[in-house]
Specification:
This protein has helices spanning about 1-30, 65-80, 105-165, 170-250, 250-265, 285-290, 295-315, 315-334; strands at about 85, 90, 95, 100. The protein is mainly alpha-helical. Strand 1 (about 85) and strand 2 form a beta hairpin. Residues about 5-40 have low confidence and may be disordered.
Length: about 325
């Protein structure tokens, strides 16, 4: 019986040791700066006095916070640029659009291409429509000119008839009748021409509206695919940034001045990160849902978050030292 208990205890210890090694390995593999090298971090040194209240402080920026920041950086970079495929010797994204793999960056490029193509088609269509309207306006001016010339000729004819037949009332009446007849015929022709122009104009307007609606439907259909991906990407991002939001919420009053300093130094005065300053605690997700209404904005948010986290890591030496000590201990236990 003792032998059985000893074997059972041995198996339990082996399993626990294996789990410990596995968890430690995963932690190390999820961190990009395992060697203690900060050369990959953009050197934006923050100097706000708020640093001394959070650097190396529990529930501020401690070893756990650094771990979360670096892990988030790695995951977001995979979203933006993909994972390197050794066989294909290139980075491949894990989002699928029209049967092809894409990264967040490539999806942003496609989104811009769709918008640009739609704007180009609308502009060309409007120019063609405008040219047609301009032609018809010019024809209307020409029509008015012809009408004026006719009136002048009719007055000349009338004056000439009066001079030639001033003593012959019958011939004068015949000349006036002829003038009225010519004018009626010309007026009738002008009326028919105007009606024809109006019909052509209505047809042109209808064709313009029809083509524009076709372009809009095509654009909406293509954008719907991107919107579906956008929804999934935002969910993924919220899962990834969950640890950062939880950690940052407790030190929010100290992080906000640092965000403002970072935004000023990197030239991002309208960064979505600064929206935190306008809202109450617990509304970060709602703010993100409102602001991130395009792939480009999500990508911008990702870049800003990573850049800010890098600046925090670089500007908190005590916290980073704690993290490296933790990492060193994990390495030795493997």
């Amino acid at each position: 019986m003792n032998t059985i208990h000893q074997k059972s205890r041995s198996y339990t210890l082996v399993i626990l040791a294996f789990c410990n090694v596995l968890i430690s390995s995963l932690l190390i593999n999820n961190v990009l700066y395992a060697k203690g090298d900060l050369s990959h971090i953009d050197h934006i040194k923050l100097t706000n006095p708020a640093l001394r209240f959070i650097d190396g402080i529990p529930f501020g920026v401690d070893a756990k916070a650094i771990q979360n920041m670096l892990s988030i950086r790695q995951k977001i970079r995979k979203m933006q640029y993909g994972i390197y495929n050794k066989k294909k010797k290139k980075y491949i994204g894990h989002y699928t659009l029209n049967g092809k793999n894409h990264t967040l960056k490539s999806l942003v490029a496609i989104e811009k291409e769709y918008e640009s193509d739609f704007c180009r088609k609308k502009t060309e269509l409007y120019k063609n429509h405008l040219n047609t309207r301009t032609f018809r306006y010019a024809w209307t001016l020409h029509e008015e000119k012809l009408e004026k010339e006719l009136e002048e000729k009719l007055f000349e004819q009338e004056a000439l008839s009066i001079r030639r037949h001033s003593n012959d009332e019958q011939q004068l009446l015949e000349a006036k009748k002829l003038k009225r007849k010519v004018k009626r015929e010309y007026t009738s022709r002008l009326k028919k021409e105007r009606e024809k122009i109006q019909r052509e104009h209505m047809i042109n307007v209808q064709e313009y509206d029809k083509k524009l609606q076709t372009f809009q439907n095509e654009h909406t259909k293509k954008m719907a695919l991107l919107q579906s991906l956008l929804k999934d990407i935002k969910k993924e991002l919220m899962i990834i940034t969950g640890p950062f939001l939880e950690q940052a919420r407790s030190a929010k009053e100290f992080l906000l001045p640092l965000m403002e300093e970072w935004a000023e130094k990197v030239g991002r005065p309208f960064s979505p990160l600064l929206r935190w300053h306008e809202e109450n605690d617990g509304t970060e997700r709602e703010i993100f849902e409102q602001d991130a209404n395009s792939l480009e904005r999500v990508d911008r948010f990702c870049t800003d978050l990573v850049d800010f986290n890098e600046s925090i890591v670089y500007s908190c030496p005590r916290a980073y030292k704690q993290f490296m000590k933790l990492l060193s201990g994990l390495k030795q236990s493997i």
